[in-house]
Design a protein that fits this description.
By secondary structure, the protein is of the alpha/beta class. It has two domains: 32 residues, no CATH class; 201 residues, 3-Layer(aba) Sandwich (Rossmann fold), CATH 3.40.50. It is 35% helix and 13% strand. α4 packs across α5 and α5 packs across α7. The longest helix is centred in the middle third of the chain and has 21 residues. The protein starts with a helix and ends in a 6-residue tail after the last strand. The N terminus is likely disordered. Bound molecules: zinc ion (2 copies). One zinc ion binds next to loops.
């Protein structure tokens, strides 16, 4: 009789383009995106068989998929593999930027659902014992609505059934924003950026490190170095997108 829930239910809108969907039921079940945006994502999602396992770069149809690849072979990356939805091109870039700078976490959660849907086998295959977001420094928290990495990590942890551990890894110093640092200096900029609480918790663990995008890999690599120095067995990285250095 008092059917307020239905009366006040908001009409469905695509998380990315805001349009009411022509086929909402299908999209809600799949990704929260309308049919048109879903089609754009389908074109943007990378083929795992043509990607470098170590750094997540998509290598094109005629490039050998040996790992390390041309984009990572000269880099001192300390993590073991990267899972991502695709390269930081139009659709994925627009979705990440609108989600990151929104006042709500809905956009990031939708991207995370898409990541899990597309990379389920890869992520479960890692068998992570812990899911860890790349943390913000406490001063960055004062000016942001949320830490994208933390939102994605929380959703990922629920979706793949691995515990979230967001207290152990912390920022020990405020680094310059990576996007404002020359690519060649980004590894140096991240040195000593993290600290650990309860490092004993990491012994023999497979850790899934989570961030929104991966460019040079310097941030996730420095976190991996520290986690492994405390006894983590493997460190894998999950991000929404891989940015090639030349397009950063
Ligand atoms: Zn849409
Ligand atoms: Zn590579």
């Amino acid at each position: 009789m008092w059917n307020f829930g239905l009366d006040f239910a908001l009409p469905w809108k695509c998380v990315l383009c805001d349009s009411p969907d022509d086929n909402a039921q299908v999209s809600i079940n799949r990704t929260s995106y309308c049919t048109s945006c879903t089609e754009k994502f389908e074109a943007a999602i990378a083929d795992v068989d043509q990607s470098c396992e170590r750094c997540g770069a998509v290598l094109g149809p005629f490039v050998p998929t040996d790992s390390p690849c041309v984009h990572c072979r000269d880099k001192p990356l300390k993590f073991d593999s990267v899972s991502c939805l695709g390269m930081y091109g139009e659709t994925i870039r627009d979705a990440i930027l609108s989600a990151k700078y929104s006042s709500s976490t809905v956009g990031l959660e939708a991207l995370c659902r898409l990541l899990v849907q597309e990379r389920c086998q890869q992520l479960r295959g890692i068998k992570p014992d812990l899911v860890m977001p790349i943390p913000h420094h406490w001063r960055a928290r004062l000016t942001r609505h949320f830490n994208s990495a933390a939102v994605i990590a929380e959703s990922l942890s629920v979706a793949i059934g691995a515990p979230l551990e967001d207290q152990t890894l912390y920022r020990s110093r405020l680094t310059r924003l990576q996007k404002r640092v020359d690519l060649k200096d980004r590894f140096e900029n991240q040195k000593g950026a993290f600290g650990l609480r309860n490092p004993e918790l990491l012994k023999g663990k497979r850790v899934l490190i989570v961030d929104d995008v991966l460019t040079t890999g310097a941030t996730c690599s420095e976190a991996s170095r520290l986690l492994k120095s405390a006894g983590a067995k493997t460190c894998h990285v999950a991000v929404i997108a891989r940015v090639l250095d030349s397009s950063a």
